[in-house]
Amino acid sequence: MGPGPSDVHPEVYEALGRSTIGHLDPEFVKMMDEVKALTQYAFQTKNELTMIVSGPGSAGMETCFVNLVEPGDEVIVCQNGVFGGRMKENVERCGATAIMVMDDWGKPVDLEKVEAALKANPKVKVVAFVHAETSTGVRSDAEGLCKLAKAHGCLTIVDTVTSLGGIPVLVDEWGMDAVYSGSQKCLSCIPGLSPVTFSPAAVEHIKNRKHKVQSWFLDLNLVMQYWGGGKKRSYHHTAPVNSLYAMHESLVVLQKEGLQNTWDRHQTMHLQLKEGLENLGFKYLVETNYRLPQLNAVYLPEGLDEAAIRKQLLENDNLEVGGGLGDLAGKIWRIGLMGYSAKQSNVDYCLRALKELLS
Amino acid sequence: MGPGPSDVHPEVYEALGRSTIGHLDPEFVKMMDEVKALTQYAFQTKNELTMIVSGPGSAGMETCFVNLVEPGDEVIVCQNGVFGGRMKENVERCGATAIMVMDDWGKPVDLEKVEAALKANPKVKVVAFVHAETSTGVRSDAEGLCKLAKAHGCLTIVDTVTSLGGIPVLVDEWGMDAVYSGSQKCLSCIPGLSPVTFSPAAVEHIKNRKHKVQSWFLDLNLVMQYWGGGKKRSYHHTAPVNSLYAMHESLVVLQKEGLQNTWDRHQTMHLQLKEGLENLGFKYLVETNYRLPQLNAVYLPEGLDEAAIRKQLLENDNLEVGGGLGDLAGKIWRIGLMGYSAKQSNVDYCLRALKELLS
């Protein structure tokens, strides 16, 4: 019950261990087509360029930045936690300038500040923000931010690592352009893969680049030839075959339950956990309206040594919860209710263990 | 029996499916220390900076190039197959110039040409070459090339994707500097990870860079803080936990058998396969002295439709062999005897299936 990796679904483990076959085997290619369709469902998109990056969320993040950003560009980056800072690093390593819109950790991205930045920087072509900040448990208004960016002729890069599968991520309806997520949060797959999707406008932008993409491994012009629709696939790199079996299964599990049911389950479990935590004296960092059900960032009751209790929980109860990052280190816990972990037995177990430890 | 992924060892599958725990869990961190020591054994090195990149071999390749090469640099790249070409792409995407030393596909890298290039280009600081070309089954003289580079004050970047675990790769003895491999060839782990190791001289070079590494995900200055020795590890990205369980187990299997025994087994199986193939009219592309036991690149007996027979093998006999790449497409097969796949039953099965098909 940390901030990810979450518990892996038993059926995902089962799929993971299937015999490794070639990455160009017709049977495997057929499965990749299914993975693509299932990922489109998860992202609620018809985007043709929807695929799984062969690396963790940070490789997915880098895929978005190195393909959409060119040397000399200006990019608005909204930062309200750890991962906005990582976006800034990505922009700068592309030889571009990051124009930062800063908000306090635990607060959502402020649309008015973003609008002001867009007006003040007419050269900007890309706006980047984190939908669900894993470092604080806050949800920003992705729909509002995407509409605002579009109104100023900008594309968006959106981090949905912690949101996908836990709360609505409506790529087409909200008009998101380059979106990445992670396998190990609300999708409850093993860690190490990053689902991504790119709007037709993003693809057009990539095709019209002036400079070659600085990463060969993540160059979508090349990767597309392997993941691209039904026709002959050309070899780019050896796909992580077994991890993709697992990804396929975790997306099947998601589709079987249905997105709405999955979102509802996360919310229900969150409300139960919240009630129990508040009864024990924990206080939420984030305001109700922007709170992520899948990531409960809470201040501990006063006078407690958070690291010591966290260690006890891990050692005595075999229960992982996350500590705070940055300025919040030593101050908050981050309790995950992600994917398969968002279940009654986990909520009960966690509250019971805490009750015993704190009484 | 293609050019990789190879058959995965049963114990590796078993390890792969173990419960996912946190990437900062003390138990996991302990396992990472073991993975590091086991990887040092596989590479025959004492290099402190020895680790597993969270992506396939091409991510390992990119890790070496983006960390060692800076904009404006000149790099000698030896090309005698597909992967030398990929190295050139990597150099250029770092904003550097690749000075190419070209050899025919199927021939080893010519040391005299490399020496001439080193003499003609005194500004060069890095020499890159492929130890075992997966596209042709040829072995180049890694020891000779490393000594030559060193004599001219250059560091080496060496691709050992197909060699590690199949033939000797003696990192310290030969004086290799930045070396990457893949999990899915002679290590018989699942695809998707890349073992890498860096000499103290390479680390020094990285620490003295003038420009930031262009990839955040692959920046060793950051990754080192997570993989670095016993002390407190700081979070960089979520490690591919289950894949690392598998990597750990595949390295344990290697250590148990012992490197020398593993190399011998590859050679023995190769000689048996070779005899059978030659009896059936196949001819080797590569001269005996430079032939890789783990990758048998062979011309088919005349008049045969290679693609049709390869398809029959896959569909009727459930046996994968690889086709040729580049100019060799349609002309050769690449039959792998890698890691767990390098065994008597595979050799026999393959020869029996071919005999039936061709008779």
What order do the helices and strands come in, and which of them pair?
Two copies of one chain form a homodimer.
Chain A: H1 10-16, H2 26-43, E1 49-53, H3 57-68, E2 74-79, H4 82-93, E3 97-102, H5 111-120, E4 126-130, E5 132-133, E6 138-139, H6 142-151, E7 155-159, H7 171-174, E8 178-180, E9 194-198, H8 200-207, H9 220-227, H10 241-257, H11 259-279, E10 283-284, E11 295-299, H12 306-317, E12 322-323, E13 332-336, H13 344-358
Parallel strand pairs in A: 2-3, 2-4, 4-7, 7-8
Antiparallel strand pairs in A: 1-9, 5-6, 8-9, 10-11, 11-13, 12-13
Helix pairs in contact in A: 1-10, 2-10, 5-6, 11-13
Give an account of the 3D structure:
2 copies of one chain form a homodimer. With 359 residues, chain A is of the alpha/beta class. Chain A folds into 2 domains: 10-256, 3-Layer(aba) Sandwich (Aspartate Aminotransferase, domain 2); 259-358, Alpha-Beta Complex (Aspartate Aminotransferase, domain 1). Helices cover 43% and strands 15% of the residues of chain A. The first copy, chain A, contains 13 helices and 13 strands. The first copy, chain A, has helices at 10-16, 26-43, 57-68, 82-93, 111-120, 142-151, 171-174, 200-207, 220-227, 241-257, 259-279, 306-317, 344-358, and strands at residues 49-53, 74-79, 97-102, 126-130, 132-133, 138-139, 155-159, 178-180, 194-198, 283-284, 295-299, 322-323, 332-336. In chain A, the strands form 3 sheets. Chain A has a 7-stranded mixed sheet with strand order 1-9-8-7-4-2-3, sandwiched between helices. A 4-stranded antiparallel sheet of chain A has the order 10-11-13-12, with helices on one face. A two-stranded antiparallel ribbon of chain A has the order 5-6. In chain A, a hairpin with a 4-residue loop joins strand 5 (132-133) and strand 6 (138-139). In chain A, helix 11 (259-279) runs parallel beside helix 13 (344-358). Chain A is globular, with a radius of gyration of 20 Å. The mean pLDDT of chain A is 96. Chains A and B meet through helix 1, helix 3, helix 4 and helix 10 of A and helix 1, helix 3, helix 4 and helix 10 of B.
